[in-house]
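User: Predict the full complex structure for these chains.
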Amino acid sequence: MATLKEFLRISKLTGVDQYLIVDHTAKVVAHDIKDPQKLAKIIFSCGQNCFAIGKTQFKYLIFSRKNQKNIFIFPVGNYYLGVVKSKNVDNFILADNIINFLKGLV
Amino acid sequence: MIFFCEDCGEKNILAQTQLKNGKAVFRCTACHYMNSYAYPISKKNLKKIDQFFKDIQVSPEIIGSFLFHGKTGVLKNNMPDMLKESDLKVLGKTITNNYLIGCSQYPDINEMTLVIANKNMIAKMIDSNLTLIIVSKIFPLSKNILDKLEHLVSDNTGQNR
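Assistant: Here is the predicted structure of the two-chain assembly.
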């Protein structure tokens, strides 16, 4: 099981502008966002909805935004990880980076 | 376009500017009741969506597509037969709910992609009740399909949502 310290290396990944992780009770476990509650609501509600239909096959959800700071949601065990993408980085590059990072933690 | 007041039933003629995101918003000229209700998508627009579905279906990357209405369910279904309408209803509802949750906090969201197994579900909201969903083997969609999609959505909403 990865430690929180190992997990926090996520902020160094290419394409990660901000991140937030919530547990199964919607409690914010870690973040580097100014207004975490705003994002936490989306991460938790949408993460749960997607898991309900995709179960373990749910890989991720992307909200594309006009300002290119797209929001990603990944299931991580009993947690949900939210990532705000940096501008000028492709969606699939960020998704690949996060998936590989999460695999490396297991 | 002609709309009827929900309170007194008076006929009101509205300009295009009074139709926003699939809603008719107007004060009745007779009783001054403030109306705000969703109006059904026109047959012309439904036809355009139908044609779009047919156009993209020939691309090998596309598994299927469907149009989901928040109140009435699946309006157009171009998905493989193995999926029942009840499955599509659950999928459409979940995708639409997520989209609305996202937009409630970040109004500049203009597209949503859900990846389950090796299937990519790309959703665009045409108005507050109508979601167009494309299921694809690859992500992102090819430029040709993306251009057609943008064109269709801006045609229906008058803006890019």
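The two ends of chain A are 6 Å apart (CA to CA).
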